[in-house]
Amino acid sequence: MSLLIKAANNLRHPFAPGVKCMSVTFQGFHLKHAAQINSCQHQQYKRQFSGKTAKPPKSNTTMYTLFTVGCITMGYFVFDNMEKLKRQEKSIKNTEVIKTPKVEDKVTSGDDYKQWHSTQRQDLPTFKLDEIQKHNSLENGVWVTYGIGVYDITDFIPKHPGSDKIMLGAGSAIDPFWAIYQQHNTQEILTMLEKYRIGNISPEDEVATDDMGSPWAHEPKRHPLLRPTSERPFNAEPPITILADNFYTPNEFFYVRNHLPVPVIDEKTYELEVEIETKKAAAKSTQKVLTLADIKALPKHTVTAAVMCGGNRRSEMTSVKSVKGLSWGAGAVGNAKWSGARLRDVLLAMGVQANEDLHVILEGADLDPTSSPYGASIPLSKALDERGDVILAYEMNDKPLNRDHGFPIRVVVPGTVGARNVKWLTRIAVAEHESNSHWQQNDYKGFSPSTDWDTVDFTKSPAIQAMPVTSAICTPSAGDKVKVTKDGFVEVRGYAWSGGGRRIVRVDITADKGKSWHVATLEQENEPDGRHYGWSLWTARIPVDAKHKGEEVEIWSKAVDSAYNVQPESFENIWNLRGVLSNAYHRVKILLN
Amino acid sequence: MSLLIKAANNLRHPFAPGVKCMSVTFQGFHLKHAAQINSCQHQQYKRQFSGKTAKPPKSNTTMYTLFTVGCITMGYFVFDNMEKLKRQEKSIKNTEVIKTPKVEDKVTSGDDYKQWHSTQRQDLPTFKLDEIQKHNSLENGVWVTYGIGVYDITDFIPKHPGSDKIMLGAGSAIDPFWAIYQQHNTQEILTMLEKYRIGNISPEDEVATDDMGSPWAHEPKRHPLLRPTSERPFNAEPPITILADNFYTPNEFFYVRNHLPVPVIDEKTYELEVEIETKKAAAKSTQKVLTLADIKALPKHTVTAAVMCGGNRRSEMTSVKSVKGLSWGAGAVGNAKWSGARLRDVLLAMGVQANEDLHVILEGADLDPTSSPYGASIPLSKALDERGDVILAYEMNDKPLNRDHGFPIRVVVPGTVGARNVKWLTRIAVAEHESNSHWQQNDYKGFSPSTDWDTVDFTKSPAIQAMPVTSAICTPSAGDKVKVTKDGFVEVRGYAWSGGGRRIVRVDITADKGKSWHVATLEQENEPDGRHYGWSLWTARIPVDAKHKGEEVEIWSKAVDSAYNVQPESFENIWNLRGVLSNAYHRVKILLN
C-alpha cells in the first residue's frame, strides 16, 4: 500500500465524508457510471503514487498528467447544484416532468439554465448507459452525460481548449469533474452544452443522490469581512482599506485562495509522508513519515512572509482585456509571522544533498474528484537554502493555522507565489521533475501579451516562483472624496512587496502623472536583503494644489526593490491570458474635497 | 607596519612610478604644499588601515570617510594638463607671461580656459604659500591654489555639493585631487573657478614639474574598436553591433570601466591581504596574506557571468534630462567565462561564519591621489553563498586577466553591478560596515526621479548590488536602412540580462508600439535560476507590412526575468540624478528598405 494511501487514510475524503478516502473514491457520488471510469482512473493514480519506484515509468507520468489535466480542464461546474438536483430527481421520480424550452428560447429565461442538465427533455430520446458508453471515441462519436442529460460533443472536441484531454470523459459522466470548479458554472458554458444535448439518461440509470453528501459540507466558517471572488472553492479577499492598518494581517482577514474543498484533518492521526524519489539526492534514507508531534519536535523557526496570490490585482489587468481567472482586487495578499519546522532540517536529516537539477514536490490533502491532490513544487535549492527560510508551518501569527490556511501544516515558501505555499500538506517528494499538477504545469505562468489561448504553449514558460515587485494604494479608495489637509496635503497609504526576499527600498507616489514623485515612508522589518520576505507598508503625504479642490486626481504608486527592479507603468504591455503577475503601477482616482 | 603597506609595497605607485608607494605618497608630485597636507592625511589613512584593530575607532572611520569623500568631491580635473603645465611652467620661468583676458571675456575664447590656472594673471597680486595656508577656515577665508592660480572660494563653500568636505583642501592645493577626474575638466567649472581667482602663487613657491611623471604613463594599450567615453580614467565600450555576435565577449572588446589609473603590478610579488576585522565573524584566523600561487592552488571554479556597469545605457536616460556621469551607450556590458578561486573557500578556510550583519570589503591597487584605493563591498552572505559563485578571478575566457580587467586578480561577483567586481584586488576585509569608499557610499545608488542634487541624501538609498532586468537591441542600429526579407520580416538581435542570477525567461519585441509583441529566440546557458549569471543573446524576426517600405519604424525590446520582473517602459519615471539603472525598454528607430 502506498505511503500516500497510508497518509490519506487519516483524512476524510471530501466527497465521501466519514469514509476512508482511498478505498472509496467515487462511491461517495453513487453515480454508477462515474464510479466505473473513476475507479479505473484511481487505480492508475494509485500506481503512479505507489512510492515503490524511485522513477515512475514515463508513460504512467504522462498518463497521469493527461488525466489530471483532462479532469481539471473538463472540471467546470455543478456540485452545489446537488441540492437542487436532489429536489429535481424527486420531481422526476414523481413524473412531474418540467417542460424544457428549446435552447434558443432559454438564454433569456433567468436562472433556468442551471437546471437544464437535471431536467428531462421530452423532445429528445432516452438512452441506456451501455449505449452511451459505446460513444467513447471520435470514430463512434463522443457522448457524455451531465445530470440526466446526454450530450454528443463530437463536434466540440477540436474546439476544446484542452484539446484531446476531454476524451478522458468520453462515454461517461462529467459530473464529478465539473463538481469542483463552480466559478465556471456560467450561462455561456451551460447554454453551449445544452446545444449539444441529444437525449436523457434512461430512468433506471439515473443517479441516486440521497446519500451523496457534498464536498463542501465541511467548509469552515469565514469572517464576514472577507469578500468572496468565488464561493466554491472558497476564494476571498479583505477590503484593501483595512490591509494597511496591520503590519501583520489578522488571520481572520487574511485572503483565502483554495483550489478545492477544504479537507477535514484530524491532527491526532495526521501524517506527512516524505519521500526521496531519486538517487541523485544521495539521501541516506528515502522514506519517512512524520506526525504533527514529530514536526513540532524539530527546531522551531519563525519567518515573517507576505503570501500573495499569483492573480492578485487581476481585475486591473482585466480592464485592459479580459483574462481567465478569479477577479481579484489588490487584497489577495497578506503578511504574517509563520512558525514551524524548517523543510531544510527535514531533508538534511534524511541526508539529502544539494543538486541543482532536483525539485521538491508538495502535495495537499485537498483532493479533486479523481483523488488527485493539489500539488506544486519548488526547486530543491530553495528548500535547502538556509536563507530560503522554507518552513512546514503550524502557526500563523502565533496561533495554530486555521483550516482555511492549511491546518495542521502548510508549507510557507517565503518570497514565492502563494500557489507553491501548499496547504494541508500530506506529502513531500524530492524528484527529478517538477510537480505534474495542473497548477504547476498549466497555470501560474506568464506569457507575452500577444499569446492567446490558440497559441499558448504552457511548456514554454517557467512556473512562477519568486514574484515581481508590486505595490498598491490601500487608502484612499477609488472614488473617495478625500479631505485636503489645511497645509495642502493628501495622505496615501498602502503596501509594497517583492518576491525572492528582495527588500522594498523605495515607494514613489505621484498625483500629477509622474511630473513629481514623492518618496513614501516605509514600515518594514529590518531583515537583510535576499531574506526580506515580509511586506512593507508605506505612507506618503502628497502636496496638492488647493485650487484643484472638487476636482479628480489620479494617484499612482510605484515600488522599487533591492535589485532596483521597478513596477512597469501600465497593464497593456504585461497583459497575459491568465491574468497573473499583474504588477503595473496602482492607480486610484479620487476627488479632492 | 600594516599589511596593506606590505601588499602595496609590491606595487608601483601610479603617481610616483618606480618608487615604493607608501613611503612616498605625494613626493611624486613635488608639489611642496600638496605634500604637506597629503603626508598628514596619508598618516591618517595608514592608521585607519593599520590592521591592528578589529574595530577601527569611529572617529577615524568618520574622518577617513570625510576625507576620502572630500578628496573625491573636490577631485575634478587636471593631471593630463601636466604636460601643458610643464610647458607653461617653462614659459613662466622664461618670464614670457601670457596676458590673460578678464573672465567675462574668456568664456567664448575656445580652449583657452584649460590654461587659465597655469597662466599668470598680471592684473592680480602674488601670494606666498605661508600666506595662502593661513586662509584655511571660514573665519579667515578659504583660499586654495590650482596650478599657479590662487582662489578665494569662501563664498563658494555653501554652494559646494559636497558641503563642508571641500574644507579639507582649504589653504592648500587642489591639484592632486583634481588630477584624476578628467571628465570634469569642463569649461563651466574652470570658468567658475577663475571667477574666484584672487592672485598668483609667488614664483619661488611654484611647482617644479620636471620629475613629476604621470599616473597615466602606464596605461595599457587598448583595442581601437573600444570607443572611449573618457580617456583618463579610461572608460570605453565596444560598438554594440558586435556585442550580439559572441556569446562570450572577446576580452579585447570587453567594455572597460576604470575609476583611477591602471596600477602596475608584478605578479611575482603580488600579495592579497585578507583580514577579518570583526569578532562577529567568529573566524579562527583573522589575517592571511595570499600570493598569486596561493590563490591558484585553491580549487579552480569557473562561472559565466555578465558584468555590467551601473551606468550602462545612461545616454538614453540623459535624453530625458541630463544626469551626472559618463555617457555610456548600451555597450557597458560584456559576458565572459571567469575562472579563479572561490572567495567562499578563502573565508571558510579562515573559519568565517555566516552572519547577516557583515560585509566583505574589497579594495584594489588603483589608488587615488590620497593613496586611498578603489573600494567596494558586498554582503558576507553573497560571498559565502555556494550559489553566489563569487570568485577571485585570474582568468577571463580562459586567458589570464589583462591589465584593464584587473590583472592579476579581480573579484567577480556574479549578478552584481560592475562596480563591486573590484579589479587589481589587494585587500579583502570582513567588517561590520560596508566599504566607506565614495563609490559604495556616494555613487552607484538609485533615487526617485524628483530627487535632485539639492535634495539628495546618499545615506537614504542602498548601494546597488544585484542589477535589474534589462535588454538592448544590438542590430539594427538607430537610423539603419534595414532590408525587409522577401517574406516580410526584419531580423533583430540583442542581449538581455538580469542581476541576482535571475535567468531571462522571455524577450518580447514589438515594431508597432506594443500592439503586437513577438517572442525572441534565446541563446543562453542552461544554468539554474538564481545562479544564471550569464547574459542571454536573442534573435527575433518581426513581421512588417511591405507597404511601409521607406518608412520609419521604431523597434522596442523588453526582457522578463525568472521573477517575472520586466523592464519599465520609459525613462521619465526611472530617471535618477546619477543616471544609473537605466533599464527602460530599448527603442531603436530604423528605416525599412
From TrEMBL, chains A, B:
<keyword id="KW-0496">Mitochondrion</keyword>
<dbReference type="InterPro" id="IPR008335">
    <property type="entry name" value="Mopterin_OxRdtase_euk"/>
</dbReference>
<dbReference type="GO" id="GO:0043546">
    <property type="term" value="F:molybdopterin cofactor binding"/>
</dbReference>
<dbReference type="InterPro" id="IPR005066">
    <property type="entry name" value="MoCF_OxRdtse_dimer"/>
</dbReference>
<dbReference type="GO" id="GO:0030151">
    <property type="term" value="F:molybdenum ion binding"/>
</dbReference>
<dbReference type="Pfam" id="PF00173">
    <property type="entry name" value="Cyt-b5"/>
</dbReference>
<keyword id="KW-0560">Oxidoreductase</keyword>
<keyword id="KW-0408">Iron</keyword>
<keyword id="KW-0479">Metal-binding</keyword>
<dbReference type="GO" id="GO:0020037">
    <property type="term" value="F:heme binding"/>
</dbReference>
<comment type="pathway">
    <text>Energy metabolism; sulfur metabolism.</text>
</comment>
<dbReference type="Pfam" id="PF03404">
    <property type="entry name" value="Mo-co_dimer"/>
</dbReference>
<keyword id="KW-0500">Molybdenum</keyword>
<dbReference type="GO" id="GO:0006790">
    <property type="term" value="P:sulfur compound metabolic process"/>
</dbReference>
<dbReference type="Pfam" id="PF00174">
    <property type="entry name" value="Oxidored_molyb"/>
</dbReference>
<comment type="pathway">
    <text>Sulfur metabolism.</text>
</comment>
<keyword id="KW-0349">Heme</keyword>
<dbReference type="GO" id="GO:0005758">
    <property type="term" value="C:mitochondrial intermembrane space"/>
</dbReference>
<dbReference type="InterPro" id="IPR036400">
    <property type="entry name" value="Cyt_B5-like_heme/steroid_sf"/>
</dbReference>
<dbReference type="InterPro" id="IPR000572">
    <property type="entry name" value="OxRdtase_Mopterin-bd_dom"/>
</dbReference>
<dbReference type="InterPro" id="IPR001199">
    <property type="entry name" value="Cyt_B5-like_heme/steroid-bd"/>
</dbReference>
<dbReference type="InterPro" id="IPR036374">
    <property type="entry name" value="OxRdtase_Mopterin-bd_sf"/>
</dbReference>
<feature type="domain" description="Cytochrome b5 heme-binding">
    <location>
        <begin position="124"/>
        <end position="202"/>
    </location>
</feature>
<dbReference type="GO" id="GO:0008482">
    <property type="term" value="F:sulfite oxidase activity"/>
</dbReference>
<feature type="region of interest" description="Disordered">
    <location>
        <begin position="207"/>
        <end position="231"/>
    </location>
</feature>
<protein>
    <recommendedName>
        <fullName>sulfite oxidase</fullName>
        <ecNumber>1.8.3.1</ecNumber>
    </recommendedName>
</protein>
<dbReference type="InterPro" id="IPR014756">
    <property type="entry name" value="Ig_E-set"/>
</dbReference>
